[in-house]
Amino acid sequence: MAAVQTTIKTELCSFSEYRIYPGRGQKFVSRDGKVHTYIHSKEARLGRQKLKAAKLRWTLCLRVGCVEGLAPSQQEEQRRVRGETQNA
């Protein structure tokens, strides 16, 4: 018997770009009619303060932007570098 696959419709957080699963998050409608969805109250507060997500280290916007801002050869080097695991 084949396993049944179901798809869950997810949204993206307007601030941090994290996935929001059904039953999570909150929506904020601004005066101009734009709907902003936030995954947590932390993102909602920062979004209402008009802070840029690209300046915060924990957002996906900054993580992706840091790698994309480099030249292609530097991107490969940055992705390959890993910390060595410490054995007992």
Give the helices and strands, then pairings:
Blueprint: E1 11-12, E2 19-20, E3 26-29, E4 35-38, H1 41-48, H2 60-68, H3 72-80
Antiparallel strand pairs: 1-2, 3-4
CATH architecture: Roll
Computed over alpha carbons, the radius of gyration is: 18 Å
What proportion strand? 5-15%
Cα(first) to Cα(last) distance is 45 Å
Mean pLDDT: 81
Global morphology: flat
Number of beta strands: 4
**Which structural class best describes the helix and strand composition?**
alpha+beta
CATH topology annotation: Ribosomal Protein L24e, Chain: T
Strand order of the largest sheet: 1-2
Largest sheet: 2 strands, antiparallel
What does this entry look like structurally?
InterPro entries: L24e/L24_sf, Ribosomal_eL24-rel_N. Pfam families: Ribosomal_L24e. This is 60S ribosomal protein L24, putative. By secondary structure, the chain is an alpha+beta fold. It has one domain: Ribosomal Protein L24e, Chain: T (Roll). Helices cover 30% and strands 14% of the residues. The longest helix is centred in the last third of the chain and has 9 residues. It starts with 10 loop residues before the first strand and ends in an 8-residue tail after the last helix.
